[in-house]
Amino acid sequence: MSYIIGSPCVSTCDTACVHVCPVDCIHGPIDTTGMGAEVAGMSKEDLEGKMLYINPDECIDCGACVPECPVKAIFDSEQDAIEAGEEEFVHKNYEFFGLKFIN
Ligand code: SF4
């Protein structure tokens, strides 16, 4: 199980979540190992369509990121995201790290 970042993050990429994650498993929007630092150099136009992702193999389900997100983009689990109509983003989070989500 993993926490999942969903659609409200798209074109937002606030990085508050990155700074509180105890295992540094939130990455993107481009660098799969960086911690969102590249967001600082991006304009609003650059951020269009981009988002951050949680590495499902590394997330320890602590929940620290959830209250930090200003757009409430983080779901407690794959199942919660799916129930909210965000299955597409479950796959996106996995695929960003070269993983495959199997329901
Ligand atoms: Fe990181 Fe915890 Fe959020 Fe998982 S639930 S992404 S470990 S802060």
Task: Briefly characterize the structure.
By secondary structure, this protein is α+β, with helices and mostly antiparallel strands. Helix content is 24%, strand content 8%. The chain starts with a strand and ends in a 7-residue tail after the last helix.
Q: Name the helix and strand elements from N-terminus to C-terminus, one letter apiece.
A: EHEHEEHH
Strand order of the largest sheet: 1-4
Cα end-to-end separation: 11 Å
- Strand proportion, as a percent range, falls in 5-15%
Bound molecules: iron/sulfur cluster
Kindly report the average pLDDT value. Answer: 97
Helix content: 10-25%
Low-pLDDT segments, ≥5 res? none
Assign an overall shape. globular
Helix/strand structural class = alpha+beta
Q: How many alpha or pi helices?
A: 4
Main sheet attributes: strand count, strand direction, barrel closure: 2 strands, antiparallel
* Gyration radius, in Å: 12 Å
Any key phrases for this structure?
103 residues; alpha+beta; two-stranded antiparallel ribbon; 4 strands; 24% helix; globular; binds iron/sulfur cluster
Describe the fold and architecture.
By secondary structure, the chain is of the alpha+beta class. The protein has four helices and four strands, in the order βαβαββαα. It has helices at residues 16-20, 44-47, 78-83, 87-96, and strands at residues 4-5, 26-27, 53-54, 74-75. A two-stranded antiparallel sheet has the order 1-4. A two-stranded antiparallel ribbon has the order 2-3. The longest helix has 10 residues, at 87-96. The structure holds iron/sulfur cluster (SF4). Residues 3, 20-21, 23, 25-26, 54, 59-65 line the site of iron/sulfur cluster.
